[in-house]
Structure formats: structure tokens, C-alpha cells
Amino acid sequence: MKKPKVAFFDFACCEGCQLQVANLGEQLLDVLGAIDVVEFREVMSEKWDKDYDVAIIEGSITDEHAVERIKKIRQRSKVLIAYGSCATIGGVNGMKNGFDLEDAGKYVYGKDYKFFPTIKTHAVHQVVPVDYFVNGCPIYQPELVAVLKAALQGIPYYVPDYAVCVECKLNENVCMYQRGVACMGPVTKAGCNSWCINNGNICYGCRGILSNPNESGAKDVIAKYSIPMDMVMNKMNMYNKCRELGENE
Amino acid sequence: MNKRNIKINVEYLTRVEGHGNIVVDVKEGKLHMCNLEIVESPRFFEAMLRGRTVFEAQHITSRICGICSCGHTLASIAAAEDALGFVPSEQTIALRKLLLHYEMLDSHILHIYLLVAPDVLGVKSFVPLIDTHNKVVRRALRMKKTCNDVCDILVGRHVHPISAIAGGFTKLPRQKDLDDMLNMLEGMRPDMEATLELFKTVKLPEFERDTEYVALVSDNGEYPLLSGDLGSTDGVRMPRQDYRKMTNEFVVSHSSAKHTKLSRDSFAVGALARLNLNYDKLHPKAKAAAEAIGLKPKCTNPYMNTAAQLVECVHCLEDAIEIISNLKAKGVNYDEEILVGVNEQNKIPVKAGRGVGAVEVPRGILYHEYEIDETGRIVHANCIIPTNQNTNNIEHDMRKLVPEIMGKSDEEITLALEMLVRAYDPCISCSTHFLDVKFVNR
Lengths: 249, 442
Hints:
The complex is a heterodimer.
Chain A: E1 5-10, H1 16-22, H2 27-34, E2 36-40, E3 52-58, H3 64-76, E4 77-83, H4 85-88, H5 101-109, E5 132-134, H6 141-153, H7 164-170, H8 195-198, H9 215-224, H10 229-240
Chain B: E1 6-13, E2 19-27, E3 30-38, H1 45-49, H2 57-61, H3 69-84, H4 90-121, H5 129-132, H6 134-155, E4 164-165, E5 168-169, H7 175-200, E6 212-217, E7 229-232, E8 237-238, H8 243-247, E9 250-252, E10 255-259, E11 267-268, H9 271-278, H10 284-292, H11 305-330, E12 353-361, E13 364-372, E14 378-384, H12 386-404, H13 410-423, H14 428-433, E15 438-439
Helix pairs in contact in B: 4-6, 4-11, 6-7, 7-11, 9-11, 10-11, 12-13
């Protein structure tokens, strides 16, 4: 069987998700045995000028140049996977959308801000169609491997659409609300094995909001623990600000 | 030959849609232009931090860079705690030092094996090495995996650590965790020795340019990484709060990235700078490694930064083993485990203030500065990354190097320049991408 041609691309991001791939260690060699990686900037300088069987996209779309580039990659790709919060939901880059863009530019780059043209942060699927999503900041490695397997076999992968709380309960963590802290777990998609709460932190919502969150339940919890609404919204917007843009905007 | 025209233009995309070039222009044997431009990714982190609480700064700023996320975490925490006037416990400091050692090891190993080794072996990436040097590739991935695994145990994961926050750690390592980390690190020693043996056979380019080296310095016997004053080989010393006087950012016409200087035209940060300033404080095994590969201070060959990284690997490995052994002997105090929402519960008193964190991360000193209001919200944020501090120094290196090697072919000149830039380890993707070369007017 001919090995599928796979390419990795990065847009506005920290490259931590590529590093998660590199961090597979010797398991990386097994993955490399099943696919033919034709472009992967973090570890290779080789280039490929034909079509891709699978394109794996990291990062958000934050300028016009990126819009054109992602459209071209989409045209050349049979299957497109968005991986990491920046690509799947806009992630932390989305916080920029809460500011006037010119003002944000001037604040960071002073009078030179025009060297850095920018548009509102978009998740990849808000610009081009996406076939598979690997959520998380960073991605959870076992899920990436599961999605790759599904993509290479041409079968669907379903991102869990139940709350992180489900996994968190199975891991027997004490609820963060019971410890007096607001956590995004109740409205966030599971699939990370409640990674952050297992380590004593809260859920920040990096995997995106559930398609049908229990809003009244969340409101009850917020009211029960007297948590200020602006604090909850701030937490929500750390990763999920781009949801306000909708599809293909 | 000396009446030659050379025009080299190396273009690449930086980490995130920014751009950078090496531009060399020689007309009739005279160097007209030799510039390096590195533009940092326009993601507006400093703007986005405004209005956020200082307790969220670590989580957000670790996302500046996946490779250095532990470094950003530690610099961010240092700045936040400085602004709040909070003093961390001895145990917290020991665990943070351990985390920084892991970061240093992980990053240096990645650089030495995946970026520098292909150059030395004359291939384009590590991928062809899977067939030709399988043992070496497996060793590299094994060492990298170990760094990753010990990080997982200590802070949940290496990319964007979970449990290290302002105030301390949300989860402290259990007895078994300490044993596991110790086993893994001790198990890395044979691979480290094999790396050293391999490095003895490597010949790096010869080139000298004396410059000012800047790193953290201190008066105690410890190799300073997590804290200390700012110092230089030209005798400058000042507290970290004065970092702006240390970096003196200025704008140059050919680049939209800011440059820095101190006592002379340029200065360098990173492993070689640290070694030049603090060689005596290295672990004895690291000093032995330095002698074995012919590295002694003051070394002014920038290509030797990679050698300095290897020496630091030995230091960090050995010191990490000592830190864990000490923790085991003393026992971990689990009462120090803190809750993440310390600010929501006013566990740490909040006041208005300004704080600076200066931490030695793999590529040099990383600065974070926050100004917060009386509610703990950030009103002003500034970060200066090591790569920006090195850019000006790399340019000065190139301007001295090009006339010295003008007799060589375009390919050789380009490779020498790429290797020079790569030696500073500016950032993985930038340096990999330097392999795209355009020659004009030949």
C-alpha cells in the first residue's frame, strides 16, 4: 500500500502542538512508519509541490496573507485536520478580538504597528471547511493518534460532546466549585481525561464549548457559589472568544 | 576573487507569519550590507494581558511559545510575585529550579540533535538519519522522551505546564513521583555520556569575535538560572528591575524588530554567555565535560554555543538529580500544595505594584514585567525574549564573518551563515527554515 502524503502547517500559534507530536518520542518512529511526512517545518526543511492526502493545520488565521494561504492548502488537500485550540476554536489568540485592533497594534509595536497588519482572529473552520478536529491547548496525544487512525481509514471521529466533568468524576477529583473556585469544566467538551484538574488546576475551556451546554445548570452553580459574572465571562473568553464570529465569517 | 559580487537573500517565515531575512550584498569585494531581520510573531500578547488578573498571566504567557512554555511560566510567575511582594517558600524554589533544569535539558537536546546534527552530518533534516544513523536518532528521541516524562510527573506536561502557578504548586510530587524522576534521570546518564563522546568527533567552524556576554550573576556558589542580578563580561551589574537599562532597545531602519545593546555595539545571551560568566559555578561533571570537548571561558566563537548547551545539559542533569535527592531526604511538605484560585479567595494579599521576572531560559535571559492595579489586574505588560537580544549580535558576527570567507562558494557562505544563526538557537522553526536560500545576481 502506498503511504499517504501528510503535511503539517502552522499559522499563528506557539507551535506547542507540533512539539506534542515530536514529543511522542520513539513512538514517533511508528507514526512515521505509517505515513509519509512531506512537510513539517519544525523538524524538516524538505518541501512538497503536489497534493496532500492529509494536511494537519496548527494555529489561528489572523491576517489576510493567512486567509489566502489556508485556502490554497485546502485546495491541495484531500483531508484537512485542525489541531490545537488556536486552529479549532481560535484559542488564546481570540482574546485579541476583545480589543480595538489598531489600539492593540499600537500598544505592542508603537508607531511601527502598521508593519504588523492584522484581522480578527478566526478558527480554521471559520475560513475553510475542516474534516477533523483535534482540540486542546496543547493537544492530548492519544486523541491525535486516534484521529489520525480515523482519518487514514476514512472513517469519522466523534469529539466527545459531554462535559469535562464526566471524565473528572471518573478520575475522582474533588470538584473545583466545592473548593471554591470557578472552573470551565461543566461547559467544556471532554476528551482530555480532565488533564488540568487532575493536576490541581481548573479547566480553562481550551477544548471548546459543548454544542448543548447545560446553561441553567451552570447558572445555578454560578449563583450557588456567588461567582461574579464578569469573572466567568473572562474565563470563557480566554479560549472561546472566537465563537462570537460564527461560521465562515 | 576579491573583486567579487555576492548577493545572498535567505528568506523564511518565522514562527508565526512574521518574516525574517539574511541579506548579504557584496559589490566588487566590498561588503555593502549584511543584515538579519527577525520579526516576532504578531499575536499581541502584551495587549491581550491588559485587564486580566496577574494570576492568569502564567497560563496565558506560557502560550507565547510551546518550546519555552516552562521558561515563560517561570518568568511570568517571578514577575507576578515580584509585583505582589510575595516570597515563595524554599521548597517551591527548589521545585522551580528543577522545572527549569528539565526545560533546559529538553530544549538543548532538541537543538543539538535535531537542528545542529543534520548540518554536521550534511543532510537536510533528521529524517534521513533514521536510516543512516538509527541509533543516534533513537538516542535523541529517548532522551527527549525522558525530559518530557519527568516534566509530566512534575507539572502535568512539558508543553504548557499545569501545576506551576504564582504562589507555588497546585500539585506536589509524591514519594513515588520522586523515585520515578530520579530513576529516569539516572537512567539518562549513559545516553548523556554517549552524546558527549559523539560531540568529541564533531568539528564546529572556527571563527572568533569578542563581544559582551550578558547573563544572570550572583554572589553565591550556585550557577544562576532562576534568579540573580543582571551581569556582563564588560563588568556591568544591575538589579533585574533595571532590565530596560540592560537591553536598551532601539529601532533600526532595515528591520521592524527592535535591537539591543549595552556597553558596545552588541551583546549576546544564551548558554555561551552563561558559561563565560559563571563557568566556575558549573557542576564538576559539567566542567569535566567542558574540558573534554575543549570549551573554556572566555570563549568567543559563537558556533561553540552548541557546545556550551551540551555542557549545560550535563550540569542540569546532575543538579536535577541532586535537587530530587535533597527533596527525598528532607521529605516534601504537602501543606504547601496551593489552590489555583488563590486570588478569588484572597489567599495572597493583592496590592498595586510593578514586578520584573528575569529568568535564564535555554536561549538566554527572558524578561517579563507587569504593572498591576490594586485589584490585581494587569494595566501594563512587557516581555523581552532572548532572540531579540541576540539579533544585533548575530548581525555583527555576520559582518565580520562574510569578509573572512568571501573566497568560498555561495553554498558554503550560505551554510556558514545559516549555521551561525542556528548556533544561537533562535527558535526551532526559524532556524530550520533558513535552509530556503535565494541567490540573486550571480
